[in-house]
Amino acid sequence: MNIIVTSLFVDDQDKALKFYSETLGFVKKHDVPMGEFRWITLVSPENENGTELLLEPNNHPAAKEYQQKIFAEGIPATMFGVADVQTEFERLMQQGVNFSIEPTKMGETTIAVFDDTCGNFIQIAQQ
């Protein structure tokens, strides 16, 4: 069994698509109209056949409440692996990304956490 799609609630699909593709560098794989919203998935440019990240609209009240509550607590909605957290931190800072946690060593792992501008904190980790 493999994880083929994982969802991330976003408050604006267009803004999220721009941030995740232009700022973070993910590649759009699907963008299919689904009524009022779209099925938008992105993949890592290093593995275009890998796990897809679905930019899921948070229009359901439970989704919106969940997203707002974990954001208010500073809890990352998901985690992405990077080769070098410090390098990625510096690259994203130059693009105006706001970090709530700068690169921090946690045992054998280094992490940082940033605001995706779409209602989520995202953690990056170097193992």
Structure description:
This protein has helices at residues 13-23, 61-72, 85-94; strands at residues 5-10, 27-34, 37-43, 52-57, 76-81, 99-106, 109-115, 121-126. With 127 residues, the chain is an alpha/beta fold. The protein has one domain (5-126): 2,3-Dihydroxybiphenyl 1,2-Dioxygenase, domain 1. The strands form two sheets. Strands 1-4-3-2 form a four-stranded mixed sheet. The protein has a four-stranded mixed sheet with strand order 5-8-7-6. The longest helix is centred in the middle third of the chain and has 12 residues, at 61-72.
Ordered list of secondary-structure elements with their pairings:
Elements: E1 5-10, H1 13-23, E2 27-34, E3 37-43, E4 52-57, H2 61-72, E5 76-81, H3 85-94, E6 99-106, E7 109-115, E8 121-126
Parallel strand pairs: 1-4, 5-8
Antiparallel strand pairs: 2-3, 3-4, 6-7, 7-8
Instruction: Classify the secondary structure makeup into a structural class.
Output: alpha/beta
- Helical percentage: 25-40%
The count of strands amounts to 8
Count of helical segments? 3
CATH superfamily: 2,3-Dihydroxybiphenyl 1,2-Dioxygenase, domain 1
Q: Can you tell me the residue ranges where pLDDT is under 50 for at least 5 consecutive residues?
A: none
Short note summarizing the structure:
InterPro entries: Glyas_Bleomycin-R_OHBP_Dase, Glyas_Fos-R_dOase_dom, VOC_core. It is built from three helices and eight strands.
